[in-house]
Amino acid sequence: MRRTDHFSKGPLPRRGTPRPPVQNSSALAGLPACGAGFSPFDPRLPDSLGNQWLRASLRSRSRGRLQFGSQSCRFGPYRIPSSPVIGQEPTPGHHLPVAATCQAEGPGPMTPEPDTQTAEETDTRHAQKMAKKKAARDKIMATKSGEKGLIIVHTGAGKGKSSSAFGMIVRCVAHGFPCAVVQFIKGAWDTGERRLLTGHFGDLCQFHAMGEGFTWETQDRARDIAAARAGWEKAKELILDESLRMVVLDEINIALRYDYLDIAEVVEFLTTQKPAMTHVVLTGRNAKDELIEIADLVTEMTLVKHPFRSGIKAQAGVEF
Length: 320
Prior knowledge:
alpha/beta; Rossmann fold; 2 domains; three-stranded antiparallel beta sheet; 9 helices; 9 strands; globular
């Protein structure tokens, strides 16, 4: 059985019931104006469905209780949101809730205890923490014992793809490993890496600049395809030379992106003919999905900021 209101003759309307218009407006005459002590629960209100809706709505809001940390606040019922007297303006405070009273409940906020550890105790805890981390790391490293020639892809819109590849070439040279570089796009540039490797380490690193510059500079698709094809033939020759520890194919992803080279041919060669211990590094943005699929290591350089967007041109020692 539904609960009934002691001011009404029937059950209260359900929550969400649309408020019907008050039909007997003359019955409101003579009641006190809003803000003058009027209560929505006044029994003198006409007992219509509209007033039942009003009482139920205000009663549900009057039970509100808010909790702010350790303080609890209870709010009284809202006053009626409009003047009950026809033609009379509502008072300025007609929509404000009855003043709330708040009182603290429970203890106040806890104050953290000051750190009383000595420097020696802090150092001891740090040493124990690092010892646990080293033990976990050693356990992981014990499972890593294999070696193989890797297919490495550097891609993404950010700077550092070729720079990272040439960093690995320098490492190979420092270890005395023979290596090689084939440049597919930047062949026309007088770069710092080219000067260094050909001028000082030509006995360890072969450097082949096969490109003729960016595609928007040549403006000749047939010429670009021919240059890319020549670069790929040289790359295959170098990769098949098992004396070379690493071969960098700089900006080959650009040639693959514009279909100057057949991606299926490149993938098939790398997966079936590359010597087992030869590392091949392929650089350039927009790497093909097929290449990423067969790669052992893929790094995507993310562009966050670049001085070119602020009007700064490419500078020696940074870009080339």
